[in-house]
Amino acid sequence: MAGHRNLPTFFMGHPSRFYDFMARRVFRRMYRRIAADVDATAPRGARVLDVGTGPGILLLELARLRPDLDLTGIDLSPDMVATAGRHLAPFGDRARVRTADVTDLPFPDGSFDLIVSSLSLHHWDHPEAAAPELTRTLRPGGRIQIYDMPFAPFSALDRAGAAQRDRFRTGIPILRGFTRFVVQAPGSRSASTRRA
């Protein structure tokens, strides 16, 4: 049912500032764990897209952890994009954000080595329309890594049944039961191109 997941007013104005506070203070450990997980698989010099970046805390952690990564975030909320832009300003051109929808990504085919998303999929109104866009913008051998609650509509992104799902420990007691959803695109990079 369209419109049942996305709550745009929660991510604008005063609520967006509250969400930013929660992301920086309460969920920071979770973002650090996700960044460490991404670090373990991201090739050196990878181009990374964070879908539903919110205030950009995952990108902030990745920028600190991996200076070699080229980072892009998108979000539907202009307020979240503005907040993320402020957080990422110290990293200059290697970390940027823009307003965009996952069902109509404004990037050429094969733009990214790695596409990540955290706590966003369960908000997507049309995950089935997002799947071809994620695949289109992923380079051969690239990966999609999505971290969300078990009830998120992962199956809408995995029509071919090629994804791996497992439990991911967030380090946050109120968000213990996370699922990590991983899709590896055909044409894998060799191990020598991955970060040691």
Description:
This protein is of the alpha/beta class and 196 residues long. The protein is built from 5 helices and 7 strands, in the order H-H-E-H-E-H-E-E-H-E-E-E. It has a 7-stranded mixed β-sheet with strand order 3-2-1-4-5-7-6. Helix 2 crosses helix 3.
Overall residue-averaged pLDDT value: 86
> Strand arrangement, largest sheet?
3-2-1-4-5-7-6
Task: Return the string of H and E elements.
Answer: HHEHEHEEHEEE
| Number of helical stretches of at least 4 residues | 5
Structural class by helix and strand composition: alpha/beta
Poorly predicted segments: 190-196
Quick description:
By secondary structure, the protein is α/β, with parallel strands linked by helices.
Describe this protein with a few key phrases.
196 residues, alpha/beta, seven-stranded mixed sheet, 5 helices, globular, disordered C terminus
